[in-house]
Amino acid sequence: MLHVPAEANYPIHPPPTRRRAPASHMTRPSRFASFFASRFVSLICATLFACAFASTAQATVSATDDTGATVTLAAPAQRVISLAPHVTELIYAAGGGAKLVGAVSYSDYPPAAKQVPRVGDNKALDLERIVALKPDLIVVWRHGNAQSQLERLRELHIALFFSEPHQLDDVALTLTRLGTLLGTSDTADAAATAYREDIARLRARYASRPPVSVFYQVWDQPLMTLNGTHMISDVITLCGGRNVFAKLEPLVPTVSTEAVLAANPEAIVTASAGATKPDAPLAKLDAWRAWPSVTAVARNNLFAIDGDLIDRPAPRIAQGAAQLCEDLEVARSRRPANAQ
């Protein structure tokens, strides 16, 4: 308070007081501060929610299998079991080899696959072993595994992805789908691209060549072949060949020797382990020499393809296709001059 001497003899008034704003009203600076603070908090909350949502969305993975079913996992698979040799090859090619905890017999490629614990074969699975391995994904051969055992796995609520490629292009598609479920899309997509390029080169070189009629012998006793919906028939077409039994049913039909003689194929082809050269000696092909009137026999167009390369619908089928294309080119070269 201002001190004034008494002798000044003039009235003393207290200093004027500043009127305070009611508590419910803020000054302009306070109002702006509150506004920006609330906006900042809202932004932080929205960001955290978006991050949480994105994290959840990224964790969940889905892919469509060869039955048309959508397989969804809460997160990329970490423990995987393969129920067919070709599936094992696909998983390794897709970058998921380290996640394999079980595989069936004859899963022998790449070499590392031989060390994966066995869970039976394609016909008889060791269900107890499979359950004990605690897989979060099992990749199944649709028509190669016992349906009753697959149903048992369904009852245990284990995710099943069915693999049944029918066309050459299906191999690349399966690679990308497995890459999604395994969380290895970069590796899988690169493998799919390389495979597509290999097939495209073969198609460009051979598909339009003069056609060669082909009998593909799956088995000799009983005599069995394959129809036009089988992937090997797609390989024959890729190489400029024509499957003489393409229209038969079922997928792998039994045929008679007389039917083969009537079809008179220009080439007879079969699969055999380790067969890598044209004219490879093979007893089940040599048996056809009893019918020298057949064009394939008369021109010695009896070819064996490495079974691991041609029978498995996996990336290495591109190598088997290359071998078959070369064999059919040999058959073309053996045509009489007036038949070229």
UniProtKB/TrEMBL annotation:
CDD domains according to UniProt: BtuF (cd01144)
Lineage summary: Bacteria, Pseudomonadati, Pseudomonadota, Betaproteobacteria, Burkholderiales
Domain spans labelled Fe/B12 periplasmic-binding: 79-332
NCBIfam families from the UniProt entry: TroA_like (NF038402)
PANTHER family, A to Z: MOLYBDATE-BINDING PROTEIN MOLA, VITAMIN B12-BINDING PROTEIN
One GO term of the biological process aspect: cellular response to iron ion
Region: Disordered, residue numbers: 1-24
Top-level taxon of origin: Bacteria
PROSITE patterns noted in UniProt: FE_B12_PBP
Family annotation (InterPro entries): ABC_Transporter_SBP, ABC_transptr_periplasmic_BD, Vit_B12_bind_prot
Pfam families hit by this protein: Peripla_BP_2
Protein name: Iron complex transport system substrate-binding protein
